[in-house]
Amino acid sequence: MCVTPFIRVAFSSCVLLALPGCLHVGPKYHAPKPWSPAHFENLHSGNAFSMTEETQISVQWWKTFNDPELTSLEERVATKNLSFLLALANLSESRAQLMLAGAERFPALSATGSYRRVQRSEKLMQETLHRIGGGIVHGTHGQMGELASGFIEEAGNTATVPLLNQWSSSVDATYEIDLWGRVAHQYQAAKAGLQATEEERHAVLIAEEADMARGYLTLRGDQRRLLVMKEGVKVIQKISDIAQGRYKGGLVSAVDYESAQARLNDTQAQIAEMNIKIAQEENALALLLGEMPGSLNEELEKNVITPVVPPVVPVGLPSELAHRRPDIREAEAKLRFAVEETGEAVADFYPRVTINADFGFQTLSFRDLGFWNAKAWNVGPSISLPIFQGGRLSGQLALKKGAQKAAAISYKQTVLQAWHDVDNALTAYHDEQTRMQKLRDEIANDNHALKLAESQYRSGLTNYLTVLSTEDQLLTAELALAENEATVATSLARLYNALGGGWENEAQSE
């Protein structure tokens, strides 16, 4: 066998393989540089009892509350939350897409073997020989032509086709020469799609962790308000008893006693309403952990205290925000995905060059299948050039360019929204602390006023309405403070959510 043709074709194929990389068409992706200020605008360290400063953010930020129950709940989110587990399961689809796109970068190899028992048509063979003989008569002159024609026609009258056994085995290879970068763009788009799915999973985890913290802190605040209401009932009951005694002594009218009873009933009605709200909040936390309703009630009703915010809250550096928030990273991955798909659409306008090759053995006898002279092979390129597609390629390119432009705008919007979230969260965290201090001052004043009013009422120097009004102001202020304490804590949770903290711990454990 002469191997020179095979070597020549193989050399030509190597030259084609060396071309990709310098002929890629379409846009090239350049990572955007998100804007960030030199420092956070609303850092507060003056009159706030919990200061914010630009130091490294804690991965498990919920531990800053020093609440073992909150820490326990947060640690269960990454293993039990159904929304997060669903996002985790969705990764398998993106990983499969990446495998499919990556497979096109390599030759496709397959091995085949076959056996066939074949009976060809004798009638077809005879007819073919007759026509060949007739063609020789019409195409030639002389005695030799007539003899050849007669011989072939005679063979056609008596020709038989034997029953044949056909054995074959071969190894086939197909490889697309990525001259224009179509396959490379496709693979990079799949990688960007996988990254976007991963960042979406991180974003889901952050959201669920933040929901858990806000739900838990709100629950603790409402539980604290419930205790305040119950203490208020005791105070109102004491004042009601005083009013009843003065009424029986003929010192006051029935109005004082009836007003006290009405206030007592109103507070008890609020307690019943708060019990309903607390039960719903406990069920919401159970749902976040994929648990049945009521499964966390016993656990959540122990040690009812409102977690205290830390004196110093690290918020990281402004330049780190784009790298820490998964939604920004996801938007960037989607932008790269759109760019790479645009490049793939551009490459579809150019010819596709494919190398096809196979090598194997063919024989009519199984025992001859392994002999070298039974070999059969072919190798060579094929070219596919789009000539007319009815506008499909142009429409596809316009579609991808539109998606690329939309992805760029979405990225800018995501970055801008992130800075608004941080700015609003920092402002709210500071302002709620200011409100807390004012409420504490108000409660101190109301306590003093209530003691004076009770003393004057016992002495008959004032009527019951003054006592009732003063007590109502105190109870309202205490309820507002209990709610504010929870709001300060939830404001801190919102701040960490805006800063994009919490997913790193899960990512490091993969």
Quick synopsis:
This protein is α+β, with helices and mostly antiparallel strands and about 500 residues long. The chain has a domain of about 325 residues: Outer membrane efflux proteins (OEP) (Up-down Bundle). The chain contains 13 helices and six strands.
Structure characterization notes:
- Belongs to the outer membrane factor (OMF) (TC 1.B.17) family.
- Keywords: Coiled coil, Lipoprotein, Membrane, Palmitate, Signal, Transmembrane, Transmembrane beta strand.
- It comes from Acetobacter aceti NBRC 14818.
- The chain is an alpha+beta fold.
- It has a domain of 322 residues: Outer membrane efflux proteins (OEP) (Up-down Bundle).
- The chain has 13 helices and six strands.
- The strands form two sheets. A four-stranded antiparallel sheet has the order 2-3-5-6, with helices on one face. The protein has a two-stranded parallel sheet with strand order 1-4.
- Helix 6 packs antiparallel against helix 7.
- It starts with a helix and ends with a helix.
